[in-house]
Amino acid sequence: MNVLDFARAFFSDGAHWHGYDGIPTRFTEHLTFSVEALLIAAAIGLPVGLLTGHYGRGGNVLALIATAGRALPSFGLLVLMFIWSGFGTLPVMIPLVVLAVPPILVTTYEAIRSVDPSPVDAARGMGMPETRVLFQVEVPVALPLVLSGLRTAAIQIVSTATIAAYVSLGGLGRYIIDGLYQKNYDKVVGGATLVAGLALATLVVFWALSRLTVSPGVRRSG
Amino acid sequence: MNGFFDLPSDLQHSYLGLVGLHLREALIPVLAGLIVSLPVAQLCVRFRWIYPPVLGITTVLYAIPSLAFFVVLIDYFGQSETTVMIPLALYSLVVLVPAIVDGVRSVPPETLAAAEAMGLGAVRRYFQVQLPIAVPAIIAGLRVATVSSISLVSVGMLIGNQGALGNMLYDAQTYHRPALAVNSVLTIAVLGILADAVLVLVRILLTPWMPRKGATR
């Protein structure tokens, strides 16, 4: 028996395709949590990153936040929140958001700050107000990097939401955690396959997003 | 007996023992990643067409969640430290390879021409000119890789208590001692920040020609 056989056994078992522990249910749970966490993190990280990047201030503070965000073990935070506040969505949502904000924040800041100053000056010279300078000049040019920050955040969320099954969250991680406890290796490998598939799908979504939204001129020069 | 640093005996380690274990499990992969990414990055610099596919592969590997990676490797390496360290080493590549490639590419052509005019061969030029100039970029990559690795080791707890300091999280739950979880999270965070500081120090020592101020990132 190798990994492929385990995966085949898992996916060909009809019992895994319906009910509260079925693949569609678990998949939807995982996706819902991840999208919610990403939206909350983006709602915090994007505006702050855009503003600090535009005015070029607060770089040191952001670098500190970035290091602290990376250093905090998301899994540890997850378990700690769970012990402190018990079952529920909130103890899971907090670590996911805490984990996802730093990459979004820091990449957005860096992206906006590293925009070539000459078009920005030209825009100001043409009499554009600051909001238009930001949204019509800086954001379009910085978009590839901003998206890469969001992509990193999304991937980390998907991956940490997997671990969150340990603290009783649903989602695809359930198969891995339950499978490990039940010594049901089919389930473990099946879950791992699904999670990896979801992570790769996330990559593809962001790739498509950047294809659609990044202006061709920016893409060529980048 | 229940002081902040007293650990339940089932962890089979003292507090400092776990710290040592944690550092070993986190740092060996980064070291391995560095050893692999140096030649890979050099290939990417030499043959430009290799770089995009290499970036693609490392990005895809990085996307695979650690837990999924661990459980698939259990089949080959059991519930062991190796199983935890292999994914961590692979994750470090996604940061290290681009950092080294950018660093080596940022060496000005005049410098390379000067090295060649002084009679340096390709090997000496690489070790004595390109690599030293790339040190700040490489260290920047190492900082990200090291800190992430230190934080990720704790997930190893889920596969047969291979998570070093992360194993305290399990005990925190079973014995209802939240202080253990606080200890685990704080210790891991402090280790990460200390490792980061050590790497900054290493960069300052390795690049005495860099200005002290304004070089920080």
UniProtKB/TrEMBL annotation, chain A:
Its main location: membrane. It is found in: Cell membrane; Membrane. GO terms for biological process: glycine betaine transport; transmembrane transport. It is a multi-pass membrane protein. The keyword Thylakoid does not apply. Belongs to the binding-protein-dependent transport system permease family. This is ABC transporter permease.
UniProtKB/TrEMBL annotation, chain B:
Its main location: membrane. GO terms for biological process: transmembrane transport. InterPro entries: MetI-like, MetI-like_sf. Gene3D superfamilies: MetI-like (1.10.3720.10). It is a multi-pass membrane protein. The chain crosses the membrane at residues 26-47, 54-78, 84-101, 133-159, 179-206. Residues 19-203 form the ABC transmembrane type-1 domain. GO terms for cellular component: plasma membrane. Keywords: Cell membrane, Membrane, Transmembrane, Transmembrane helix, Transport. Pfam families: BPD_transp_1. PROSITE patterns: ABC_TM1 (PS50928). It is found in: Cell membrane. Belongs to the binding-protein-dependent transport system permease family. PANTHER family: ALKANE SULFONATE ABC TRANSPORTER-RELATED, MEMBRANE SUBUNIT, GLYCINE BETAINE_CARNITINE_CHOLINE TRANSPORT SYSTEM PERMEASE PROTEIN OPUCD. This is ABC transporter permease. It comes from Streptomyces yokosukanensis.
